[in-house]
Amino acid sequence: MRPDRIIVGSDDERATALLRELYAPFQRNHDRLMLMGVRSAELAKYAANAMLATRISFMNELANLAEALGADIEEVRRGIGSDPRIGTHFLYPGAGFGGSCFPKDVKALRHIAESAGRPLRVMAAVEAANDAQKHVLGAKIRARFGKDLKGRTFAIWGLAFKPNTDDMREAPSLTLIDELLAAGAAVRAYDPVARPAIGNIVIAQSANEALQGADALAIVTEWAEFRAPDFAVLRKSLKTPAIFDGRNLYDPAMMKSQGFEYFPIGRKV
């Protein structure tokens, strides 16, 4: 409804005129329509999403490095984001990206490049880094509770690949669920919107219901309702007051003062 730009790839005057008329209501303040060749428009679309995916994977890699060095990725994020050449958008580390656009467009751009005999090595690294990042939460859980999770139950808050959607395509939650089940654990999951048909797990009807009987909590999607839970209820509900936060929703010092074991991504705890 409020596009930053409208890219039209066309070499046909009538088609271009029709598209200008179609998009006129969405750019009343100033002309946002950019006309270019068809191939350039296709490449611009893929490249835009690939660039954003690159920023995410780069920050995820930096977050993992920050943990190893004893740095805090939140401080690093503010430090580099204040540079106007870099900016603050898409600098938040997490459990990896999913959805219908970023994974598909990175793969598509790689395929196009390889078909043209110009493989994009950076894109290959972005994809590999994202695949690895989806395993970070599971690794943190196994490091705390052991490789054999038989008899343990884990609550998961957030199933969709991002908040405000029910889209489960390539969601990081699916990787975590597979790993927990493979290690013998039971899973109780809650998402405000997504209701996936996943076998062998319990889909709770509320965030607190997902906590019942759980050994620990993993947060995978940054829904607004997860940002300010009743921490007293949360601590009382969990057998072990441990939170594995794949979206860095909470302040580590505050979580420590509340009596939680807190495992964020790249934060100093």
Describe this structure in words.
This protein is an alpha/beta fold and 269 residues long. The chain has 3 domains: 1-36, no CATH class; 43-133, N-(1-d-carboxylethyl)-l-norvaline Dehydrogenase, domain 2, CATH 1.10.1040; 136-263, NAD(P)-binding Rossmann-like Domain (Rossmann fold). Helices cover 44% and strands 12% of the residues. It is built from 10 helices and 8 strands. It has a 6-stranded parallel beta sheet with strand order 5-4-3-6-7-8. A two-stranded parallel sheet has the order 1-2. Helix 1 links the parallel strand 1 and strand 2 (33-36). Helix 2 (38-69) crosses helix 4 and helix 4 runs antiparallel to helix 5 (121-133). The chain is elongated.
Order of helices and strands: EHEHHHHHEHEEHEHEHE
| Biggest sheet: strand arrangement | 5-4-3-6-7-8
CATH-defined topology of the largest domain: Rossmann fold
**What structural class results from the helix and strand content?**
alpha/beta
Q: How many domains?
A: 3
CATH architecture level-2 label of the largest domain: 3-Layer(aba) Sandwich
Radius of gyration from the alpha-carbon trace, in angstroms? 21 Å
Q: What separation lies between the terminal Cα atoms?
A: 41 Å
Q: Estimate the global geometry from the Cα principal axes.
A: elongated
Main sheet makeup: 6 strands, parallel
Average pLDDT over all residues:
96
Q: Which CATH class of the largest domain?
A: Alpha Beta
User: pLDDT under 50 segments (min length 5)?
Assistant: none
Question: What share of the residues does DSSP label as strand, in percent?
Answer: 5-15%
| Tally of alpha and pi helices | 10
- Give the total of beta strands: 8
